[in-house]
Specification:
The complex is a heterodimer. By secondary structure, chain A is of the alpha/beta class. Chain A folds into three domains: 72 residues, Elongation Factor Tu (Ef-tu), domain 3; 279 residues, Rossmann fold; 93 residues, Bovine Mitochondrial F1-ATPase, ATP Synthase Beta Chain, Chain D, domain3 (Orthogonal Bundle). In chain A, the strands form four sheets. In chain A, strands 9-14-13-15-17-12-18-19 form an eight-stranded mixed beta sheet, with helices on both faces. In chain A, strand 5 and strand 6 form a beta hairpin. Chain A is elongated, with a radius of gyration of 25 Å. Chain B is α/β, with parallel strands linked by helices. Chain B folds into three domains: 73 residues, OB fold (Dihydrolipoamide Acetyltransferase, E2P), CATH 2.40.50.100; 237 residues, P-loop containing nucleotide triphosphate hydrolases (Rossmann fold, 3-Layer(aba) Sandwich); 126 residues, Bovine Mitochondrial F1-atpase, Atp Synthase Beta Chain, Chain D, domain 3 (Bovine Mitochondrial F1-ATPase, ATP Synthase Beta Chain, Chain D, domain3, Orthogonal Bundle), CATH 1.10.1140. In chain B, strands 4, 14, 17, 18, 19, 20, 21, 22, 23 and 24 form a ten-stranded mixed beta sheet that branches. Chain B has a four-stranded antiparallel beta sheet with strand order 8-7-5-10, with no helix packed on it. In chain B, helix 7 packs parallel to helix 8 and helix 12 runs antiparallel to helix 13. The longest helix of chain B has 26 residues. Chain B is globular. The relative contact order of chain B is 0.11. The chains are: A alpha/beta, B alpha/beta. Chains A and B meet through strand 11, helix 6, helix 7, strand 19 and helix 10 of A and helix 1, helix 4, helix 6, helix 11 and helix 15 of B.
Chain lengths: 462, 552
């Protein structure tokens, strides 16, 4: 219990989420403050210090703060999040308070950690190398998720990214280590409808009881959105690196996060960069995405699955572009596939998992996994190209081989990609892929080792 | 800076106030805390122990820190040169010898097969005489090893301001090729030792893989790899892979010829800005020993963004896309430190610094300022192409967009190595690719049936050249590195295949018959052979092909 608190009554001005306060001595950058309005207390953070003038951003609304009646208290501490196993199964709001009717989280926490986190020393990192099964063919076989990876889903307005995220959260498993697996879900700026969709879906599948959920609604303060993913990752780091859990962190929707960043930046009157987003957005996003991985001396891992809505399906939008440069690949959803009722509508061609090569193959998944993925990619790319050619020269202009490629493309989309909400183990994905590849003559399967194709052909003859 | 003594650098001074950029996170620093001035510019300790180490953007050894901590905390200071390690030193000179700046005093066996030359500091004043030099034996880096007659005492360690180029005696022309072991680069777009190249490409086009390939297989003696604002996992990958891989020339672990500088994207931006100069200074230091050094930076865009962020916070007038107006001149200060040169001091030695920089253009748009400024300053452009990457064509270097300016200067050297035939083979490759592209455009207009058999073969053959020759499988140990003589043998094989098929077509063979042959599979199999077996096998294969029209 502290007996002495420093404060100031000199609120100078309020602009959007920002409060300018005068007469504060020795405020620290990033320190926590409490603003007492007379009726309630709201929390905020010091953004800028200039002599005795402080710029404070509030994590809650600044509406009805009366400069004359309010007191700003300096807490002499930075923002900390309670962490621990007891958090599993809890639903919290965007700044870490329970909204599930349970007791305050700090009562049973094992400690409190600063939410900004510190960069992990690359020498201490362990390169991600182990496979995480999602039960979705387009991901497991062609864009394999590796424990410790950060792999975003690039979605568009109206595309079912949430459904895919729920499916992954439900199905994801580390082969052989089920009990050590936790999902942490951070929703930033989602609508109430989306939030309840997620919570209901998690409740139905039981994921609610082995996960931690942070919900920042679209109507909550935008400044709070800047905090929510960091709270989630602080809890994740503790569970993964101290407790040895494999943690899957789902962050949705990072576009809302970046818009909040832009809003605060605009309120601070900073020079805008591309499309009004601040110039430091890359560093800021990195401070979130880089909090994934594995380290030496710990069995746990943090895998990130951020969801990003591409405005107008534009992959060059700054938020999408910068995310792509930091994350280790991307899963891209396609409107054309969605319109043809293919689920999940994953377009494998622009999708990529950079770490895939580290976690697949002999002894890890299947010896032909790599060759299979390459063959599917090449064949599907060819079939898509031929579809365009067909529109120009007509079906008659194509050779037999080219027609075979076209039929492969149709089977691939209709059977391999279009799996619905079912769980498909990797062996089954490989089987379906072989069935699609049967549309092609054996000479086109030159990427496989000879034995693999022969064995396969033997099987089909039987 | 402050009670934690964070490291910073003054970047603007006006009327008694100084703006300081801090190389560490400033959370919790309070107004009113003291600031201490060192009276020195940002500098780095140079000496034995750099090879194989991992430094952060301002030269602190991350390997040492990793023994105790998972995270990078704040306020710790450490020299990159290990304090307690003893090095075997062997003097070259004796008391009474005269030295000038840069004179080699002696050698230290730093790694197996690598002699680290201990030189007099470049800041030494003109000529002096050695009063005392340490006899052969084991010394710590900071132990006294030489005293000059004017009283100056020297250790193995010398300090250098990172933003200042290290002076040389004479700059040399760029006529020796920098060989990468990558077919598309060595054959079509070679650069010179001491030259510079940029690799621009959007995300997912394989910049990092291409750069790592270069770091593994290029013919430089020393590699300085700068991970500038990139992913932590990528640095870790390099760290795990390099000690296991062997240098194709010496057979020693790759890590032993590498210095890694890691400023991952979540480390402070100010240190990112400094990291490229740090890397360059270390590269120049090894160049001064007469080594060929390659400095591989990933990526310039992150560096430029750091510059933009700092400039924005200073409230400077922004130039194009918010980058400061001095972006071009700052980049030039970096690129112009590349080159081949004769070092100062005795004995005479020639070394080089080759720069290979990745650029990550926003939205994959090459017209943005960082790509354009880099293009002006560098001699080669290796453009990565998203559509090639999506077809899993790696390295995804677009052969129509890329260029090199070193072609002329390097020609003599290539002819000397491989004979005149090499130039013919190159022309053959270029022309076939070009004609293949034209044929493809025609097909897209009129359909394939309108083509004559020869043109249909041309289409197929151009595609073969792409899959077999231009693509290179980084994950196949036999193909990841392709020496120059194998490149020549492969091209020769492909040319004789083309000749054979053409003759056969002109004598009445039917195209469908050729299409049905498993040419691609056979060629890919041949490609995986080691260079010693390749030529004989290739000849056997080409002779074994039976085509209609040739028997008569």
């Amino acid at each position: 219990m502290r007996l002495f608190r420093e404060g100031s009554r000199a609120i100078d001005s309020i602009s959007g989420p920002l409060v300018f306060v005068n007469k504060i001595k020795g405020a620290g950058f990033g320190e926590l403050v409490t603003v007492e309005t007379g009726r309630e207390a709201r929390i905020g953070q010091v953004l800028q210090v200039d002599g005795e003038i402080c710029l404070i951003q509030l994590f809650e609304s600044t509406v009805d703060i009366d400069p004359g009646k309010s007191v700003v208290w300096i807490e002499r501490d930075i923002f900390r999040m309670p962490v621990g196993l007891s958090l599993i199964g809890r639903i919290l709001n965007g700044h870490g308070e329970p909204i599930d009717g349970g007791p305050p989280v700090e009562n049973c926490a094992e400690g409190e950690l600063p939410v900004t986190g510190l960069p992990i020393n690359p020498v201490r990192r362990l390169a991600p190398h182990a496979y995480l099964e999602t039960g979705i063919s387009a991901i497991d076989l062609m864009n394999t998720l590796i424990r410790g990876q950060k792999l975003p889903i690039f979605s568009g307005a109206g595309l079912p990214a949430s459904r895919i995220a729920v499916q992954i959260a439900r199905q994801a498993r580390v082969p052989g280590e089920e009990s050590r697996f936790v999902v942490i879900f951070a929703a930033t700026g989602v609508t109430w409808r989306e939030a309840s969709y997620f919570l209901n879906a998690f409740r139905d599948t039981g994921a609610l009881y082995h996960g931690v959920f942070f919900i920042n609604l679209a109507s909550d303060s935008p400044v709070e959105r800047l905090l929510t993913p960091r709270l989630a990752l602080t809890v994740a780091e503790h569970l993964a690196l101290e407790k040895g859990y494999n943690v899957l962190v789902i962050l949705t929707d990072m576009l809302h996060y970046c818009e909040a960043l832009r809003e605060v930046s605009a309120a601070r009157e900073e020079a805008p960069g591309r499309r009004g987003y601040p110039g430091y957005m890359y560093s800021d996003l990195a401070s979130i995405y880089e909090r994934a991985g594995c380290v030496k001396g710990s069995e746990g891992s943090i895998t990130q699955l951020p969801i990003l809505t591409m405005p107008d399906d534009d992959m060059t939008h700054p938020v999408v572009d910068l995310s792509g440069y930091i994350t280790e690949g991307q899963i891209v959803l396609d409107r054309g596939l969605h319109e043809r009722s293919i689920f999940p509508p994953i377009d494998v061609l622009p999708s990529l998992s950079r770490l895939m090569g580290k976690g697949i193959g002999k002894g890890k998944t299947d010896p032909i996994h790599g060759a299979m993925a390459d063959s599917l990619y090449a064949a599907y790319a060819r079939s898509r190209e031929l579809r365009r050619l067909k529109m120009i020269v007509g079906e008659e202009g194509l050779t037999t081989l080219e027609k075979e490629y076209l039929s492969f493309g149709d089977r691939f989309e209709g059977e391999f990609i279009n799996q619905g909400e079912t769980y498909r183990p990797l062996e089954e994905s490989i089987n379906v892929a072989w069935q699609c590849l049967e549309a092609l003559p054996p000479t086109e399967l030159y990427r496989f080792p000879d034995e693999a194709t022969q064995r396969r052909r033997g099987k089909t003859v039987e | 800076m402050g009670h934690d003594r964070l490291l910073g650098e003054a970047i603007r001074v006006s009327k008694g106030t100084a703006d300081v950029q801090v190389y560490e996170a400033t959370d919790g620093v309070r107004a009113g805390e003291p600031v201490y001035f060192s009276g020195e510019l940002l500098s780095v300790d140079l000496g034995p122990g750099l090879l194989g180490s991992v430094l952060d953007g301002i030269g602190r050894p991350l390997g040492l820190l990793a023994n105790t901590e998972i995270y990078i905390g704040r306020g710790w200071k450490e020299s990159p040169i290990p304090k307690d390690r003893r090095w075997p030193f062997k003097p070259r000179l004796k008391a009474g010898d005269t030295v000038v700046p840069g004179t080699a005093l002696g050698d230290v066996t730093e790694k197996e097969g690598f002699l680290h030359m201990v030189m007099t500091p470049l800041v030494l004043e003109a000529q002096s005489e050695i009063a005392w030099i340490a006899p052969e034996g084991e010394y710590r880096a900071t132990d006294l090893i030489c005293r000059l007659s004017n009283g100056i005492e020297l250790t193995m360690v010398s300090r250098w301001y990172v933003r200042e180029p290290r002076p040389v005696a004479k700059r040399l022309g760029l006529e020796i090729p920098f060989l990468a072991g990558q077919r598309i680069l060595d054959t079509l777009f070679p650069i010179a030792l001491g030259g510079s190249a940029v690799i621009p490409g959007g995300f997912g086009t394989g910049k990092t893989v291409t750069q790592q390939q270069l770091a593994k297989y290029c013919n430089a003696d020393i590699i300085v790899y700068i991970g500038c604002g990139e992913r932590g996992n990528e640095m870790t990958e390099v760290l795990e892979e390099f000690p296991r891989l062997a240098d194709p020339k010496s057979g020693l672990p790759l890590m032993d010829r590498t210095v890694l500088i890691a400023n991952t994207s979540n480390m402070p931006v100010a240190a990112r800005e400094a990291s490229v100069y740090l890397g360059m200074t270390i590269a120049e230091y090894f160049r001064d020993m007469g080594k060929n050094v390659a400095i591989i930076a990933d990526s310039t865009s992150r560096w430029a963004e750091a510059l933009r962020e700092i400039s924005g916070r200073l409230g400077e007038m922004p130039g194009e896309e918010g980058y400061p107006a001095y972006l071009g001149s700052r980049l030039a200060q970096y690129y112009e430190r590349a080159g081949r040169a004769v070092s100062l001091g005795e004995p005479q030695r020639e070394g080089s610094v080759t720069v290979i920089n990745a650029v990550s253009p926003a939205g994959g748009d090459f017209s943005e300022p960082v790509t354009q400024a880099s293009l002006r300053l560098s001699g080669a452009f290796w453009a990565l192409d998203k559509s090639l990457a999506q077809q899993r064509h790696f390295p995804a270097i677009n052969w129509r967009q890329s260029y090199t300016l070193y072609e002329e200067d390097l020609r003599d050297h290539f002819v000397q190595l491989l004979g005149k035939e090499w130039l013919e083979l190159k022309t053959f490759l270029n022309e076939t690719l070009e004609r293949g592209q034209e044929a493809l455009e025609i097909v897209q207009l009129v359909g394939r049936d309108a083509l004559a058999d020869e043109d249909r073969w041309l289409l197929l053959f151009a595609e073969l050249l792409q899959t077999v020759y231009l693509q290179q499988n980084a994950f196949d140990p036999a193909d990841a590195y392709c020496p120059l003589n194998k490149q020549k043998a492969m091209l020769a094989l492909l040319r004789s295949l083309d000749e054979k098929v053409r003759t056969s077509l002109s004598k009445g063979a039917i195209y469908e018959q050729i299409e049905a042959l498993p040419i691609r599979q056979e060629l890919l199999k041949l490609r995986s052979l080691p260079v010693e077996d390749f030529e004989a096998e290739a000849k056997r294969w080409i002779d074994s092909i039976r085509l209609g029209g040739l028997e008569q």
